[in-house]
Amino acid sequence: MKIGLMLNDSGDKNNSLDNMVAFAKEAEAKGFPSLWMAHIFGYDALTALAIVGRETSTIELGTAVISVYRQHPFALGQQALTTQAATSGRLNLGIGLAHQPVVEGMFGMSFDKPARYMREFLEILNPVLKGEASSFSGDLLTGRGSMIVEEAAKPVKLFVAALGPVMLDLCGREADGTVTWMTGKKTIESHILPKMSKAASEAGKPAPRVIAGFPICLTNDVDGTKDLISKSLTVYGQLASYRAMLDLEGAAGPADIAVVGDEAAVDAELERIAAAGVTDFNAAIIASNDEDRQRTMDYLASKV
Length: 304
Known about the structure:
Helix content: 40-55%
Number of helices: 11
Mean pLDDT: 95
CATH architecture of the largest domain: Alpha-Beta Barrel
CATH topology of the largest domain: TIM Barrel
Radius of gyration: 19 Å
CATH class of the largest domain: Alpha Beta
């Protein structure tokens, strides 16, 4: 199991573009294989990763994840190809549906038939990521044409955030793997991986990658850190799709799937996560102080 890092964007001054670049350079120098960035309500992740990619040379860069409801698949494909060119072929494009309160409440769009929306989105996007023309007219989306970015290595690796059975089947058939969040190791082993792997096998595709995001912190203050994680990530335990995954895991909230403790405890938990079939551990470091944050970073660097 490879260990990568989440490039956090909390929107505050500590997450300036300059600091993101510095963090990426440090991660690359320490040997981390990948760096992932959420696309929420701050910096545009693909733009930020294009900048980071110009200042690094080897580390994989990925989005975790971009909502498909934010733009037409041609627009996302064009931006992804541009970022792929800027990063010399190191982009992993992670996409997902997002959540009904965001899509309907913020974007003013319908969240009806989300799996069909994703299926049609992929019908248009996948050819674009391969440098091919799209020609598709569906019930929800239409795309006819191509995006030409000669410098972009093709195809761009594609990952779909998938939790339900229909989405997992679609992910296995149409993508290179999945990106998970708020999903525990037992749920990945018994629910995510079997359904996605079966679909990939039926489609004649290689075994899919599972990029699993987990909150993590090495600390002696386990209770205090779990309380911090619980409070800072409360909203994720309230969103329907994540709530379903937490319920499958038997977890009351985000803190219950977090990787928290001393070196021995974290060693044991990472071993269990790897045994569940996770190929890429995406570490979201959440700490209450700089000492624990650096301790966690140093520990993870020793594992790459």
